[in-house]
Each structure stands twice: as C-alpha cells, then as structure tokens.
Structure to design on (446 residues):
C-alpha cells in the first residue's frame, strides 16, 4: 500500500484538480478528515479524497532560514514531531512497513496489484523511459536505493546488468529474492540506508525511484554516493515530488523543502511515522550542485513519475558542454542553454559552488560581441575584473574559502539580432563561458 499511494497520488490529485483544495489548519480536524477519506474500499477513491484537502501550517519559522542550515533541518524535524507525535526519527525503524504481510507480493507486486490496466500501462511506460534514459548495456553495475518490491531492478537484471538493491525492509528484499529465483536471475540485496555502499564497489548507475523523498539527511547521502560512481556514472531520480516554480500544487510545499502537506502525506506521517518530503526544483538543483553534481532533466511524455533528473558527478571541470540545469534555491540563474563549446550568461549568472575542498576556481571567458565588455567574477567579497575587447578570451582565477557558496559572473550585454540583422537570435547575451575549473591547491586541477 505504501508504494501504491506514493505512485498513484499525482494521478488522483490531477483528477481532483477541478475542485479547489481546502486548507485545514487544525491537526485534529485534519486527521478526522483523513479518517473519513479512508472509509471507502478502493485505493483510487481514497487518494482522490485525500487530494482534496491539505494541512495549512504557519510557515513563518522557515522564512529567514537558509534551507541548507542545521536550523532549517531542526525546523523540519519539529514539524515532523508535531504531526507524527514521535519524539525522534530513525529511518531504520520508522520507514519499515508491514505491507508484505498483506499480499503475496512476489507473484502480485505493484503495479500489477492495482488490477488496473491504465495504471500498469503507466508504470511500464515509466520503466521504459527510465531504462532508455539510463542508457546501459548488459554487464553494467547498477545500485538501486529503496528498491521496494524491485520491479525496476528486475527489469535491469533480466537484461544482464549486475544489479544491487539496498532497502531498510528485509521483507522487501526477500520478495525480490523470491522473484529472482522464479525468473532464474540474481540481484544482490543488502539491508541499509540511503548512501550506504557495498564494500568498495563502484557503479555505472545509481537509481532512486519514488524513494529519495524519504531521505531526511539527503545532503550527506548524496556526498557519500558521489565517490561510489564510476567516472561516467550518474544518479537517476524518478517519480520524486519535485515542484517547479509554476506548479499549481505549491500550497502542498510552501517552503524550499520539507514535509508535504497533502492528505496522503499527512496520513503517512501521522499514522506510520514516515518521512514524506518534497522539494522545490530550484532547491533540488542547488542541492545536487553543492554536492558536486551537474544536473540534467528528461521529461517522460504523459506520465509524471517517469520524469528523471540525472546527476553526474564532476571533479576538476564542470561539463559546460552539457545542457545542464543551473540555479540557486531562490531561483537565480542567468544561464542560457549550452552551445557545446561555450555557454552564454545573460549578464548576471550565478553558479552554486560544490562543497568540496577546493582552493580556487578558474573561469575561461570570451567576449563574442562586437564591442568591448567589462566582466567581473566574485565569490563573497573577492573579485576579479577585466575589460575584454571584441573577440578576446581570458582566464580568471578566484581563491575559494570553505564558506563560499556561489560564483557570480557579471558582464555587459548585447543583442545578437541588433548587431547582425540576419540573425534570428533575439536573446540578451552576456559573456561566453568556455570553462569552469577547480583546483585543490596542489598546482593542478584536483
């Protein structure tokens, strides 16, 4: 049931979108509404009912907090304690489930347990999109965290990948083993938390499918996973509650990250003690950037849970040639899509710095406009300035200190269409960035 509710919620919420959600500020009243919503037999109708109201809380305690700070984490935990009535949170205890006692999940796992061809078809569509995005062949080393009943892992094992599954629930891992025996395949299973490794093994791909939103210490987990990936490896996140700035569901997540406030999430927190988080897209992108990843996205046509975010670890050189997402948690960006050899700013670009032990950053820039251009790089109070003539390229260096959070690149701007009447490019362009490289201070890139 746990996976079923997580998977089906968005569809049910969409079906209820024609009706305005009702905010409820009293927790007791909220829990009474949840109880009434569950007085029907089908999961689908329960979720439709739960999607029609949300817990309306006072978010002012979050207002002036840095979402990456310990104080912010403590405020999220205070909200969790108030809703769950638990004095503490331990994922190895609270995130376990007894759902495997209710069904023979080895023969009837989700999505088949929905007994609905539309839902099964949607899941298979998502699996297909995710497998295409993973872009692996037989022999690839795969690790899935929070694998549950293991349907995605099984798909990869059946095509010849070396699959490893980590989950906190031993009964889920047993279900995976029983399915593997029936199919004549093998998946290595291990009880553990997000971020745990398997010896010194490195992986081509790490997968979170409808799982990462249970990870409270998500920054720590991502940093630990960084060094478990092979040079061309990446993390694939799919089916996660990540809200864009344009999302109509922002009342369900009225802060950068924290507990989701829809009826289904509040029920899971209050009744089972689970951690049901959501993230704004801007926060999620900066989170990954701070942990040393370059982020790309891939939207699954017609099925939101197939939408993927790919996080590729980098070390000495940011992949400026890739069409990555760059943003701060409060929505500052200033970057145009990659041109392959360079990437335009719009005149004021922000770049979240990885939280690693770098001593300096080197930025290679070029003035591709027809006039001279002033350019300034800054980190905290340190600056590097240059005036570039038309066509000039330069490499600027800034020292870094542990408290540095952002690199800012400011420059003059121009309009290509105004400089060349035959151009169809009507963008406002700043300086062209050709490389962003980091040094550990040893005289060469780290």
């Amino acid at each position: 049931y746990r996976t079923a509710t997580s998977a089906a919620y968005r569809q049910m919420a969409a079906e209820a979108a024609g009706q305005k959600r009702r905010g409820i500020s009293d927790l007791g009243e909220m829990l009474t509404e949840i109880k009434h919503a569950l007085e029907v037999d089908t999961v689908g109708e329960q979720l439709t009912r739960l999607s029609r109201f949300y817990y309306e809380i006072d978010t002012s305690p979050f207002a002036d907090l840095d979402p990456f700070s310990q104080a912010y984490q403590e405020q999220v935990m205070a909200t969790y304690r108030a809703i769950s009535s638990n004095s503490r949170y331990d994922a190895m205890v609270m995130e376990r489930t007894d759902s495997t006692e209710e069904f023979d999940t080895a023969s009837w796992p989700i999505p088949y347990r929905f007994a609905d061809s539309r839902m099964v078809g949607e899941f298979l569509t998502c699996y297909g999109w995710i497998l295409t995005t993973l872009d692996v062949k037989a022999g690839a080393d795969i690790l899935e965290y929070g694998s549950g009943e293991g349907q995605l892992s099984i798909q990869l094992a059946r095509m010849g990948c070396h699959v490893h599954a980590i989950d906190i629930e031993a009964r889920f891992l047993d279900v995976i083993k029983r399915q593997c025996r029936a199919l004549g395949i093998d998946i290595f299973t291990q009880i553990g938390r997000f971020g745990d490794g398997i010896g010194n093994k490195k992986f081509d791909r790490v997968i979170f499918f409808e799982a990462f939103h249970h990870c409270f210490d998500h920054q720590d987990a991502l940093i630990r996973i960084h060094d478990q990936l092979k040079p061309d490896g990446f993390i694939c996140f799919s089916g996660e509650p990540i809200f864009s700035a344009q999302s109509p569901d922002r009342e369900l997540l009225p802060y950068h990250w924290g507990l989701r406030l829809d009826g289904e999430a509040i029920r899971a927190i209050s009744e089972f003690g689970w951690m049901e988080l959501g993230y704004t897209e801007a926060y999620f992108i900066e989170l990954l950037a701070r942990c040393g990843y370059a982020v790309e996205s891939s939207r699954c046509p017609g099925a939101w849970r197939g939408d993927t975010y790919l996080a590729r670890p980098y070390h000495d050189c940011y992949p400026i040639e890739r069409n990555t997402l760059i943003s701060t948690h409060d929505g500052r960006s200033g970057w145009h899509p990659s041109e392959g050899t360079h990437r335009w700013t719009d005149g004021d670009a922000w770049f979240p710095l990885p939280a690693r032990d770098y001593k300096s950053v080197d930025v290679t820039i070029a003035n591709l406009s027809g006039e001279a251009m002033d350019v300034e790089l800054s980190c905290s109070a340190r600056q590097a300035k240059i005036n570039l003539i038309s066509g000039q390229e330069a490499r600027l260096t800034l020292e870094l200190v542990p408290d540095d959070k952002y690199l800012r690149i400011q420059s003059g701007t121009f309009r290509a269409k105004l400089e060349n009447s035959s151009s169809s490019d009507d963008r406002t362009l700043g300086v062209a960035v050709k490389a962003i490289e980091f040094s550990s201070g040893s005289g060469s890139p780290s």
